[in-house]
Amino acid sequence: MNKHPDPPWALRDLAGILFPQRCPVCDEPLAFGPRYHAPLSAIPDPYFHPDCFKKLKILACAAKGPGPILSSSEHVWSFEKLLSLLHYNEAARFSVARFKYHGRQDFSIPYGRLMARYLGDAIRDLKGDALVPVPIHRSRLCSRGYNQAALLAWELERHLGIPCREDLVMRIKHTDAQKELGRRERLLNMKDAFRLRRMPRELERIIIVDDIFTTGSTAESLSRVLKEGGASHIFVVTLCLAGAGE
């Protein structure tokens, strides 16, 4: 099993002096202060400038207590429920792009914290045995240096106590960039993209973690592999939901 790469809090405080934490929305430095162990309920949130936080749109289902937000009338999904925190508006789009493509691994801490704050109770209610971040292909991991979904999953483990398991599934297909593809093309693009490494019998309820849910093609492909491996219940938790409306 993987071990959470979590440096001691003292080192994080020292790093905060040498390399000030930046707001994930505007990317400007925040005032120095203790953040890493601040309570989830802290207001204003210590990782965002207050005006910037207002630019993020917390989905109503997240703020009020999420439930199923996908209709099965259009598609029969292999997962049972989707929980997403943010509408993928302009502020979230630019911020997640920096997080995902431009080396801003530090954004995983504030965003994982927000997911735990607003979605934590609903995630616990799923009674998941493990958090499984959507894996990225080895070549992309080498060029990017990290998997943003895994960083979010480790933060959720830290706050919620649900084990993060990166060792269960691997990505064997180097897929084309999904953002330029339509729904049908995305589904074809993700076909046979994942391979199961192992599935312990005690892991029956799996929570997939990813950064953005758009058409569901990635989550669907991964869910099928996990179910074929013996998981009986699959759920999906994402930072953003594209096409959620204003």
Task: Tell me what the structure shows.
By secondary structure, this protein is an alpha/beta fold. The protein has a single domain, classed as Rossmann fold, CATH 3.40.50. The protein is built from nine helices and six strands. It has helices at residues 9-18, 50-53, 60-64, 90-101, 108-125, 138-144, 148-160, 183-189, 217-228, and strands spanning 81-87, 130-133, 169-171, 194-196, 205-213, 233-241. The strands form two sheets. The chain has a four-stranded parallel sheet. A two-stranded antiparallel sheet has the order 3-4. Strand 5, helix 9 (217-228) and strand 6 form a beta-alpha-beta unit. Helix 5 crosses helix 7. It is globular and about 50 Å long. It starts with 8 loop residues before the first helix and ends in a 5-residue tail after the last strand. The model is unreliable at 65-69 (pLDDT under 50).
Outline the fold blueprint.
Elements: H1 9-18, H2 50-53, H3 60-64, E1 81-87, H4 90-101, H5 108-125, E2 130-133, H6 138-144, H7 148-160, E3 169-171, H8 183-189, E4 194-196, E5 205-213, H9 217-228, E6 233-241
Parallel strand pairs: 1-6, 2-5, 5-6
Antiparallel strand pairs: 3-4
Kindly list the characteristics that best describe this protein.
alpha/beta; single chain; 246 residues; 6 strands; globular; Rossmann fold
